[in-house]
Design goal:
The chain is α+β, with helices and mostly antiparallel strands and 96 residues long. The chain has one domain: Alpha-Beta Plaits (2-Layer Sandwich), CATH 3.30.70. It is built from three helices and four strands. The longest helix is centred in the first third of the chain and has 18 residues. The N and C termini lie close together (5 Å).
Length: 96
């Protein structure tokens, strides 16, 4: 199994609305992309200096499935918005 984790630090402008919009779009992806086996999206409540605003945890059967997800039109649509409203991201992909 492949695990894909992303953390997002949103820009200050319209931050909370953008977080909710991106979260909603991400949570619709499992119904649109069948290689996406599981997805959890969480909004940070800690707000410490080290904290990011939102995290994404998703799983796939294979690395090829992760690659298909990365180029799927539904994912690219969300990614376009993310590039506009997010300041920084961190990612880790690993085999479980």
């Amino acid at each position: 199994m492949i695990v894909h984790i992303v953390m997002f630090k949103f820009k200050d402008e319209d931050k909370y609305d953008n977080i909710l919009t991106v979260k909603g779009m991400l949570e619709k992806l499992p119904s649109k992309i069948d290689v996406l086996k599981k997805m959890e999206v969480g909004i940070d409540f800690n707000h410490s200096e080290r904290a990011y605003d939102m995290s994404l945890y998703s799983t796939f059967e294979t690395k090829d499935d992760l690659a298909l997800y990365a180029t799927h039109p539904a994912h690219l649509e969300v990614l376009a918005l993310i590039k506009e409203v997010v300041e920084k991201t961190k990612v880790v992909d690993y085999e479980k």
